[in-house]
Write a structure and sequence with these properties.
The complex is a heterotrimer of chains A (about 325), B (about 300) and C (about 575). In chain A, about 70% of the residues lie in helices and about 0% in strands. In chain A, strands 1-2 form a two-stranded antiparallel ribbon. The longest helix of chain A has about 35 residues. Chain B is globular and about 70 Å long. Chain B is built from 14 helices and no strands. Chain B starts with 7 loop residues before the first helix and ends in a 10-residue tail after the last helix. In chain B, helix 8 packs antiparallel against helix 9. The chains are: A mainly alpha (about 325), B mainly alpha (about 300), C alpha/beta (about 575). Chains in contact: A-B, A-C, B-C.
């Protein structure tokens, strides 16, 4: 498949002996990493067989009872599963948009901080929450949003509401809360890759722009942003493939019975109906579904990026 | 701001910048300070909640408990080893792979990229992976920390993007001088890639540092290969009781580990890896000039 | 590259420093940590110096491993009591607990790897039996007739027999030796602060109506704590699996014991569903009324466990339904350290029923044997003979039992002139210390353990049940309360009737093992999901009847009859 793809994409690249010899080093490396990749990433996919059988650990992957598409039928005939797909997708998209925007914004603005010491300190602080576990972050968030927490305190004092809002009892607040939690924890960490891309920008470009009378905002908009666009595109494409991996822990820790209908994700569903019920096959089936969606999404968006002449994954 | 006069737009911009950064720093720093404060608070007292920026009843007990943990030294040693070895090895191989797929003329450029992109979205699951590692004799050994994570498509793609951004003229002129691909990689590309290497090194190091699941799954009964994070997780698991049920929790040992230990443990794991940052930071805080080799 | 190496060195140094600080911090474990990496073979030599049993016959120590699918703190490899046990009984067990996984996942991985520890106690025993991972224990059990007779009755042993005719595991809990010494009520109840009872002059509270009337009038008279914090008359913990605090009070209010998932009508030998019963309806209706009156904490259904415990510890909460182990250890510790126990913040249980004068069964005096899990020996066990003997020793050897639960005489407890065990304040505090627990205490808690009376006939098997230990920990308002009601223990406050359980009790030990593979198991899982979502909604419903009807509609759609049918089949085997 790899070969066919490569040939069809680039017509001008002819496979000739001369070219192969010239690229010997590249080909040897490719061969080694492909062997490695096949062993460590593709071989375990034999486990996907589990989705088509009634897997029992005692019998193993190759000797369990074959049940065809029964597990997939179970999933897609369950309204709860359809609902968790919706939740996962919604939270995935919201997190993707807010996360990407905030990280880029932060990287761009941090780059504008002129004092080197301040810049270093801010950046170090920004990525600290990445090291806190979700249980700590959600604990603090829960605290802040409780009836006597700081948020309700401010709302009450500012006379914006006349009664404390029970944020975790109303489904409408849940997705924004999760998005905030993600932004809070990961913005600084996510910005690192953009910051490193910014360093590759040729300073001459800024000098030239300054001569043309560009202000700081203009420089940011017309130089920095376009220069890191390839990185943005690559990260965005990768993350688009991950929208269905919207998470597990944060929703699990922040959710409760009242807002179950919006808080449960595919991973939580798998835990409840697959793993906790000793049904590994169901989890595998859900995993295959997620993989299929991911690959479909990146193929679509990769093609789109290609048409627009942007950087792309493959 | 030097002595240069700010014009209107820039002043507004500067104000927005200051406000944004202030809010950002306050909001981001709060959970960290809160964690530190809780780590220094008495365990029983902390149960009442309401600790924000400063410990209410100061205590070093939590840190004593964390540092008094057995296997702490073994765990720390293995964690440092896996972080150093894992990062260096992974950085080198990913860089090499990124170099290969960023060569415009490479025959399988797209194919090889796709091969790795797919690995990001497929997963055989825990059990098949376990069986594979066992048959490769990676279980009950140190290698399980290094070998399976050697290549990561994500890291490779970020490096590839960076390398593609380097001027192509460099490679061409070197090739005219008769340099092979390996010479180009070591002599031209790699030195220019310091910022992205630093970034990826950070990502891999943090990932290695924080990993504990592999230690639990593959080296469950091998104390000599335990990691710092796994030792801490074991301590913390008795706090959380996430997967409990009423019937089993009832029989558990009556006194649970105080929640404050979670905070202390977090600080203990965070501190060393956070100290790594300033070392790498300068590579991408300082603008890198490719000037010397401009056409 | 050079930089990275420098960095690695730096990291190593930091770790070294940190570890060094740790050493000065905790004395008990200092010298041990350095030995951490040397192999366990050295352990036999390490301990020659232990004076307690230096003269007893030295035998070779077998090191066993034990994996338990429960999260618990691990003890050190060179734990002092573990070493004493090893010297005397020739067995040392390395316990590994569940970390960040579910029991099912962990068990599944073990099976896939086909590599087991010597002992195992999993919530998924059937999976292990199917995989052929466990060895049958029948022959071993027969070798120790005294153990066989003492530990379980014939009917109890039969409950452990699997369809293939073998017994594979032994539940280590819930056994009372001799007379029960239970001082606490470990299970569920409506709890109330003693200050509320004291304020009302210690009235007799039998029904839920009386209970809430009392909470209401107390809250009206005392709306805040001394520091001005408003009181919360009643709160409900509803987080994840802990929602039993809301879910199953109906069965108790109807006068039934905690069968968990269903009610067993002993007369007709039929399974009844408490979820749809009139008692449960009345219970939820009452909660709904109280919620509207503002008596129920509005955050009940959204609070986390930590928040709930924080509220209880502040003394703001007057009453709630919960099980003792779920709150009391932590909350009572806070009351003690804050001195608020003298304000009567402690909770006592009440045995409420729907109507006055009914017999209640909130407390069961009889043993509760859970046949769903227990300690098992795997096929990879090096020495099953010796392994099983150690299980027997744990149950049958009083000296070993004392060492596990009381500790070392003269160090962890004292013996007075009458032969009664007691602890000094210092010993009590040290026993509860986390580091001390890791380095010194070793209770091998998933090996057979007794509650009830010591074999000397005087003491209690467990320190927590020793009357002197129990009384010593009690605050004055609590003592006053007990005196006012003429009782001496927590179960006394509840006043449940004393009777023997049916052999099927508790039914939850069966439903816990249901999986979605059977229609009943599927229904059971769906019912749980439905209740999780709807019980809070019913309590909060503006119109109770409408909320209840909607809930019933959703509930019945889960096909509870499938579940009840399968439970009935199990019950029928006891006819």
């Amino acid at each position: 498949m790899a070969k066919a793809n490569a040939v069809s994409v680039k017509k001008d690249k002819k496979i000739t002996w001369k070219e192969i010899k010239r690229q010997k080093a590249l080909l040897i490396i490719s061969f080694i990493v492909v062997v490695y990749g096949v062993i460590f990433y593709y071989l375990p996919l034999a486990g996907w067989l589990m989705a088509f059988e009634n897997y029992k650990p005692a019998k193993g992957i190759f000797h369990s009872q074959f049940v065809g598409l029964a597990k997939f039928k179970f999933l897609f005939s369950d309204v709860t599963f359809l609902r968790v797909i919706r939740n996962t997708f919604a939270m995935g998209v919201i997190n993707l948009v807010t996360g990407t925007v905030m990280s880029i914004l932060f990287a761009l603005l941090l780059n504008e901080v002129r004092q080197r010491g301040v810049k270093k300190v801010i950046q170090t602080i920004s990525y600290l929450p990445h090291f806190l576990s979700w249980i700590i972050v959600t604990g603090i968030l829960h605290d802040a949003l409780s009836a006597s927490g700081i948020v309700n305190d401010l709302l009450l004092r500012g006379n914006i509401v006349d009664q404390a809002i029970n944020f975790f009892a109303k489904p409408i607040y849940f997705w924004p809360i999760v998005a905030f939690a993600n932004v809070w924890k990961e913005t600084g960490w996510g910005a690192i890759v953009y910051l490193s891309a910014i360093t590759a920008i040729d300073p001459c470009l800024y000098e030239a722009a300054a001569i043309d009378g560009a202000g700081r905002f203009q420089k940011m908009k017309y130089i920095t942003l376009p220069c890191i666009k390839p990185t943005i595109m690559i990260i965005l494409l990768i993350n688009i493939g991950n929208v269905l991996n919207a998470g597990f822990e944060v929703q699990y820790l922040l959710g409760n019975g009242l807002i179950k209908s919006v808080s449960e994700t595919i991973d939580i569903y798998v835990l409840k109906w697959g793993i906790s019920q000793n049904d590994y096959s169901l989890g595998t089936a859900a995993g295959i579904f997620k993989s299929a969606v991911s690959i479909a999404l990146i193929v679509i968006f990769n093609t789109w990026a290609k048409r627009r002449g942007e950087s792309r994954l493959f | 701001m030097k002595t240069k006069k700010l014009h209107g737009g820039d002043l507004v911009f500067a104000i927005v910048l200051v406000i944004f950064m202030t809010v950002f720093v306050v909001v981001t720093l709060y959970p960290v300070i809160n964690t530190v404060a809780k780590g220094f608070n008495d365990g029983i007292d902390a149960v009442r909640g309401g600790i924000y920026l400063w410990p209410r009843k100061f205590s070093l007990k939590n840190y004593q408990t964390v540092f008094g943990m057995q296997n702490l030294l073994t765990g720390a040693k293995i964690t440092v080893l896996r972080t150093v070895i894992g990062t260096l090895a992974s950085l080198f191989i990913n860089a090499l792979l990124a170099f290969v797929v960023s060569r415009e003329r490479f025959l399988f450029k797209r194919g090889l990229s796709l091969f790795w992109v797919i690995t990001m979205y497929v997963n055989g699951g825990l059990i098949p992976t376990f069986v594979l590692y066992k048959s490769l004799h990676l279980t009950n050994s140190f290698y399980v920390y290094v070998v399976p994570g050697l290549i990561s498509a994500w890291n490779m793609l970020v490096m590839r993007t960076y390398m593609e951004g380097l001027p192509a003229s460099l490679e061409e002129s070197a090739q005219l001088d008769g340099a092979g691909y390996m010479t180009i990689f070591f002599k031209i590309t790699a030195p220019l890639c310091k910022p992205v290497f630093a970034t990826i090194a950070l990502f891999v190091a943090v990932w290695q540092w924080n990993s504990w699941f592999d230690a639990m799954i593959y080296n469950r009964l091998k104390t000599e290969y335990t990691t710092l994070q796994y030792e801490l997780m074991k301590l913390l698991a008795s706090v959380m009781q996430q997967s409990g049920s009423a019937e089993s929790a009832k029989n558990s040992t009556n006194t649970i580990t105080p929640v404050t230990i979670r905070s202390a443990a977090t600080v203990v794991t965070m501190l060393p890896i956070v100290m790594l940052y300033p070392f790498l930071q300068r590579y991408f805080i300082t603008g890198l000039t490719i000037g010397g080799v401009k056409e | 590259m050079k930089k990275l190496i420098a960095l690695a060195l730096c990291l190593a140094m930091v770790i070294g420093c940190l570890a060094a600080c740790g050493k000065s911090g905790s004395k008990t474990t200092t010298d041990n940590s350095s030995k951490g990496d040397t192999k366990q073979t050295a352990t036999t030599n390490d301990t020659k110096t232990n004076d307690t049993n230096s003269d007893s016959d030295k035998q070779e120590v077998t090191n066993f491993t034990f994996f338990i699918t429960m999260p618990n703190p691990e003890i050190n490899d060179d734990n002092e009591i573990a070493q004493m046990i090893a010297d005397k009984w020739g067995v040392k067990v390395k316990e590994t607990w569940l970390t960040g996984q579910t029991a099912s996942e962990a068990t599944g991985t073990l099976i896939a790897g086909d590599e087991y520890p010597d002992f195992i106690d999993s919530d998924e025993m059937n999976m292990l039996v199917d995989a052929g991972a466990l060895i049958p224990l029948d022959d071993y059990i027969d070798k120790y007739p005294e153990f066989k007779e003492t530990w379980f009755t014939e009917t109890e042993w039969e409950k452990f027999r699997q369809p293939d005719g073998h017994i594979y595991w032994i539940n280590p809990f819930g056994n009372t030796y001799g007379e029960s010494k239970a001082t606490t009520h470990n299970d569920e109840a409506f709890w109330i602060q003693v200050r509320v009872l004291e304020w009302a002059g210690y009235p007799k509270i039998e029904t839920m109506d009386q209970y809430f009337d009392l909470l209401e009038s107390y809250a009206a008279a005392n709306p805040t704590l001394d520091d001005g914090t408003p009181v919360i008359p009643y709160t409900i913990l509803c987080e994840d699996w802990r929602y039993f605090c809301l879910e199953n009070a109906g069965q108790f209010l109807a006068g039934y014991p905690n069968d968990g998932s269903v009610i067993v009508n002993k007369e007709t030998m039929t399974i009844e569903d408490y979820n749809t019963s009139e008692d449960t309806r009345l219970y939820l209706k009452k909660l709904n009324e109280e919620y509207k009156k503002g008596m129920v904490d509005p955050e009940s259904f959204t609070q986390t466990y930590d928040e709930y415990i924080a509220k209880l510890s502040s003394g703001r909460v007057l009453g709630m339904v919960d099980q003792w182990w779920d709150f009391a250890y932590t909350v009572n510790d806070v009351f003690k350290s804050q001195g608020t126990e003298n304000k009567g913040y402690n909770y006592v249980p009440l045995g409420l029923t729907t109507k006055p004068g009914m017999a209640n069964r909130w407390h069961t005096y009889d043993d509760t044997v859970n046949q769903a899990s227990g300690i098992a020996i795997t096929k990879d066990c090096k020495d099953p003979e010796k392994a099983f003997k150690f299980i027997v020793d744990c149950a049958m050897d009083q000296e070993l039992h004392d060492l596990r639960f009381w500790g070392v005489e003269g160090v962890d407890y004292e013996v007075d002139a009458d032969g009664l065990y007691y602890r000094t304040q210092e010993q009590r505090e040290r026993w509860a210390d986390t580091s001390y627990k890791a380095s010194h205490k070793c209770d091998y808690s998933y090996f057979p353990q007794w509650s009830g009376t010591h074999r000397d006939g005087k003491n209690a098997m467990q320190p927590t049940e020793q009357p002197s230990e129990f009384m010593n920990g009690m605050a004055q308002p609590l003592i006053d309360c007990f005196n006012a009601y003429g009782v001496t223990t927590y179960p006394g406050m509840i006043g449940s009737i004393v009777e023997n359980n049916g052999p099927w009790f508790p039914m939850y030990s069966y439903s816990n093992n249901f999986t979605t593979e059977t229609p009943g198991g599927l229904a059971w899982a769906l019912m749980g999901e439905c209740k999780h979502e709807w019980l809070p909604k019913v309590v909060m419903a503006p119109d109770f009847e409408q909320g209840w009807n909607e809930y019933m509609e959703k509930y019945n759609a889960c096909k509870p009859e499938d579940f009840l049918g399968e439970m009935q089949q199990i019950l029928d085997t006891f006819k």
